[in-house]
Structures are given as structure tokens and as C-alpha cells.
Design brief:
Helices cover 35% and strands 23% of the residues. By secondary structure, the protein is α+β, with helices and mostly antiparallel strands. Helix 5 packs antiparallel against helix 6.
Length: 218
């Protein structure tokens, strides 16, 4: 059995490696580490222009409609370069949740903006140590208003949008919510972590208005 990438994927790998060599040398990583710059915004724009943020998003929503193998090729090269960008939060996690759970209207509103890199998103799931469970969630939804704290949310200070998991309105299971981070009732408390190439913050919610993705308690 051949586990090598196909020729097209190896070409994509070489292209990605060359771009990151030019646009993300160690000096760029060091710049983010040593200054108040939260991420390499110029690199993010270049990546978006190359279509990396649109890799697996369907063409009908402004994406490239490629496979997860192509995405994994790009992921390997971003890791190789230690690229200080919110790619994992926005592309691997938040975009994927929106594609899986969003309505047609929600997808039409947000996926083209995620594909273009205009909007950056993050995923607020865990609430401390251990595997999160619905009956342990402190963050709650009441009539689609979220309250509670999501600790250590990666790239929260960069993101425009968060996908938040909260105890559902009915108290039975957990639901997933789409939360623009400029809503009233959203507070970000920056914290230091072991990974200084990415900013992290506690996401504190006090009746912030959100929109459910998928079914109640899903």
C-alpha cells in the first residue's frame, strides 16, 4: 500500500514550503514572540490570497472544494514553519463546525468570509481539565444568550467570531452557538500560555446574544 501523497499534493507541498520560506522566516516568528503583535497579519493575508483558508470549503460558498489531504499538506508546512497565524482555530475547528452544523443561511453568511480570510473564527469548547461533558458545562444558554466562562481560548483576541459549546436551553445535552465577538456581554481576558506564538484568552460571557448552530442539544 502506498502512503505517499499524490503528485498534485506534493506540488502543493512544495508550493506551500516555498511560500512559507519567503514569507515566514524565523524573523517573522521572532517578531510575534518579542512584540505585542498577536499574529502575522501580512502572512495571513498572503495565505488567504493563495486559497489556503478556503481549502475544504465547498465551491458554492467561495471555497476550493479540495479534500482533507490537501489541508493536511498545508498543515504540515505551517507546523514546519511554526507560522504564527490562527489557521488551526479558524480553519480546522470553527469552519468545520459551521460546515457540519450550520443552516444554509448561516453557511451563506459566514463561509465565504471564512474562505477569503476576511473573518477569523475560533472554537470555545473546554472548561478546564478533563474531557468536557454536557452535564459539567458551566457556560449556559438561556433564550440564545450565553453566560459563563470558556478558559484558555486560542486566538480569541484575533477572532471576529467564536463557535461556543454551552449547556442547552432545555438543560438536556449541549448545543453549539455562533457568537460574534463584538457583541455586548463579551469580555476577553488575555493570559500567557506555554505557546507564545498564539494568543490565548479567557472568554467571559454575560448574556451575550448568540445564534444556535444545529439542533437543540445536538
Amino acid at each position: 500500500m502506498n502512503f505517499e501523497f499524490a503528485e498534485e499534493q506534493m506540488m502543493l507541498r512544495d508550493q506551500a514550503r516555498g511560500l512559507l520560506s519567503d514569507h515566514c522566516p524565523p524573523a517573522v516568528v521572532r517578531r510575534v514572540l518579542d512584540t505585542d503583535e498577536l499574529y502575522a497579519a501580512d502572512l495571513w493575508r498572503t495565505m488567504a490570497e493563495m486559497g489556503w483558508t478556503a481549502t475544504v470549503i465547498p465551491e458554492s460558498y467561495g471555497g476550493l472544494g479540495l479534500s482533507y489531504l490537501e489541508l493536511s499538506v498545508i498543515a504540515e508546512e505551517l507546523g514546519r514553519a511554526a507560522a504564527p497565524v490562527p489557521f488551526s482555530s479558524s480553519v480546522y475547528l470553527a469552519t468545520e463546525m459551521l460546515m457540519r452544523l450550520g443552516s444554509k443561511a448561516q453557511k451563506a453568511q459566514w463561509l465565504p468570509k471564512l474562505a477569503s480570510g476576511e473573518v477569523i473564527a475560533t472554537f470555545a469548547y473546554a472548561e478546564g481539565g478533563g474531557q468536557p461533558r454536557a452535564d459539567r458545562l458551566v457556560t449556559t444558554a438561556r433564550q440564545d444568550r450565553l453566560s459563563g466562562t470558556k478558559p484558555v481560548v486560542a486566538d480569541a483576541q484575533i477572532a471576529n467570531l467564536a463557535i461556543v459549546v454551552a449547556a442547552s436551553n432545555t438543560g438536556d445535552g449541549a448545543s453549539v452557538y455562533l457568537l460574534p465577538l463584538d457583541e455586548d456581554g463579551v469580555i476577553l481576558e488575555p493570559i500567557a500560555t506555554v505557546d507564545p506564538t498564539r494568543p490565548h484568552a479567557h472568554l467571559v460571557l454575560d448574556g451575550a446574544r448568540a445564534e444556535r448552530l444545529g439542533k437543540e442539544g445536538h
